[in-house]
Specification:
The protein is built from two helices and seven strands. The protein is an alpha+beta fold.
Length: about 110
Amino acid sequence: MGALLNGKCFSTSSEAVDAYFSSAPPSYTAGGTSYLAEYVKSGAIWQIRRYQIASNGTTTTLNTVTAPLPTFPLCDPTESFFDGVDVGWGVAAAIIVAASIRLMRRAVG
């Protein structure tokens, strides 16, 4: 079974986790001393890396912690394929019916 994220079914949960964290914007708190937090992938593990930015622009890494893994609803990654197959057969059937009617009209007239 796959993992559903924002209406898209990913083949595996790890693909959904990668899509989730890679699309998450960094968090920035402005001030005399500003703070920045971003998601970073290290090997197979997603981490939250936090920085402190001083008023003179000096950046210091405060800490790096493992990001909590989100859970996703289960989905079937082949479902959209089979939906497309169903639509394709419907279109093919409509074309065959239309061609058959046209050929019968020619034969009669």
